[in-house]
Amino acid sequence: MSVAFRRESDEEHREPRFELPLPSGPNLVTERGLALIEERIAALTEEQSGADEMRATEIARELRYWNTRRVTAVLAPRPPEDEVAFGSRVRFTLNGKEQEIVIVGDDEADPAAGKVAFSAPLARALIGGAADEVVAFNGREDAITILDVRPD
Q: Cys staple from 100: which of 47, 72, 91, 94, with CB 3.0 to 4.6 Å?
């Protein structure tokens, strides 16, 4: 029989599924971020029990990611009252528009909800600043004016 007509399984024709990429650097988390990781693991574990084989394989892949994130999580200390740091809520002006963000870990980040990862350029520009300070961002020395800083 010709090899062209031999088909062992559908698996050999599927695209390979690589592991989910882990963000580089330390896995800093807030208490809320650690709780979200635990919740995600619990939800995936529950879903896996009733899933078909294909979905169960996808869930196992996601669980490897989240279990790695749980094991490598480093609970960040409470931020100082007067300096922008991981876990700070910061109110500032950028391009004349007032904004407020919380600086969080990579997995907790949700820019639409005002949660920005500590590794994001905006957060890196703000970290170390204090209220009433002007900081550089995006090539401008006076791009951001920090209005208020407090722990979240």
A: 91
Radius of gyration of the chain (CA): 22
Residue indicated by tokens 């979905």: 55
What is the C-alpha to C-alpha distance for residues 28 and 107, in angstroms, rounded to an integer?
Answer: 9
pLDDT in tens, 41-93: 999 999 998 888 888 889 999 999 999 999 999 999 999 999 999 999 999 99
The domain limits of the chain are: 26-75, 88-151
DSSP-derived 3-state class of residue 63: helix
Q: What is the pTM of this model?
A: 0.82
Strand pairing report for 97-104 and 115-117: parallel
pLDDT tens, residue by residue, 123-143: 999 999 999 999 999 989 889
| Spacing of C-alpha 33 from chain mean position | 9
Looking at domain 88-151, its CATH architecture is Roll (3.10)
